């Protein structure tokens, strides 16, 4: 009984996120490669904050905008890979009896392998480059980069904002 509960919890963790507002992506869009390797957003964010405090507001704007774009692209890649692998590697419901869970766990491992492969291919490198600290994750959830960006926009000279 307890094994089934753990299997169901594991299954819930691996299901793709629910679709919100709109039709699912077409299969052709699912397989499109991303443009170039994705830069880790935490490094871009740190660079933007450092530039802001050094008074280099143009550089702060560029880095903070790049960090926000990179963060959005990372979330999109993860969502697309989860959907793609859920379709390509469906999970087999566990059966009854001893050893009946083996097909389920085999399918689970295949889905995880598919997800890691998809993520590595679309990110242009290992996914471990995009692991961030809890502080950075919290800043992005609280939308702190937008605060820095708004302040940097105010301090950027007028000519730069409209003629670039």
Automatic annotation (TrEMBL):
GO cellular component entries: endoplasmic reticulum
Signal peptide: 1-21
Source superkingdom: Eukaryota
Listed GO MF terms: collagen binding
Keyword terms of this UniProt record: Glycoprotein, Signal
Domain Leprecan-like alpha-helical span(s) in chain numbering: 40-156
Pfam families (alphabetical): TPR_leprecan
Chain segments annotated as coiled-coil in the UniProt record: none
Keyword Glycoprotein: yes
GO biological process, one term: collagen fibril organization
InterPro entries: Collagen_mod_leprecan, Leprecan_dom
Keyword Ribonucleoprotein: no
PANTHER family per UniProt: CARTILAGE-ASSOCIATED PROTEIN, PROTEIN LYSINE HYDROXYLATION COMPLEX COMPONENT
Name of protein: Leprecan-like alpha-helical domain-containing protein
UniProt source species: Marmota monax (Woodchuck)
Organism placement in taxonomy: Eukaryota, Metazoa, Chordata, Craniata, Vertebrata
């Amino acid at each position: 009984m307890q094994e089934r509960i753990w299997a169901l919890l594991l299954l819930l963790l691996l299901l793709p996120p629910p679709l919100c507002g709109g039709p699912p992506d077409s299969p052709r869009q699912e397989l499109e490669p991303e443009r170039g390797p994705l830069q880790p957003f935490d490094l871009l964010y740190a660079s933007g904050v450092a530039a802001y405090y050094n008074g280099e507001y143009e550089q702060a704007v560029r880095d903070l905008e790049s960090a926000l774009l990179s963060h959005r692209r990372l979330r999109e890649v993860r969502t697309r890979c989860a959907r793609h692998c859920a379709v390509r590697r469906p999970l087999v419901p566990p059966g009854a009896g001893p050893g009946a869970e083996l097909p389920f766990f085999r399918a689970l491992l295949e889905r995880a392998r598919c997800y890691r492969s998809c993520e590595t291919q679309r990110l242009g490198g290992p996914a471990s480059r995009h692991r961030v600290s809890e502080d950075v994750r919290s800043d992005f959830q609280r939308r702190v980069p937008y605060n820095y960006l708004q302040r940097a926009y105010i301090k950027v000279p007028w000519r730069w904002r409209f003629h670039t």
